[in-house]
Task: inverse folding
């Protein structure tokens, strides 16, 4: 739901709704509570997947299901 370009901080992640391997991979990429993120781009097809999220100096593509597991506060 975060607009493209808007900065936010991840306040919580519902790790239980993600497959263990996916949760481990997201954590390894720095997507965890306290991380500052922003949406860089959304897909253009039907489900609008994937979503490109900026985390630090990286841009990471995640599925909408992964993004839905995250709660953020706008900065």
Result:
């Amino acid at each position: 739901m975060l607009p493209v370009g808007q900065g936010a901080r991840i306040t919580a992640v519902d790790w239980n709704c993600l497959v263990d391997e996916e949760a481990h991979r997201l954590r390894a990429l720095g997507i965890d509570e306290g991380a500052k993120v922003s949406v860089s781009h959304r897909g253009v097809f039907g489900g609008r997947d994937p979503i490109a999220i900026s985390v630090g100096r990286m841009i990471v593509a995640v599925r909408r299901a992964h993004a839905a597991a995250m709660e953020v506060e706008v900065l």
In short: The mean pLDDT is 90. The longest strand covers residues 7-13.
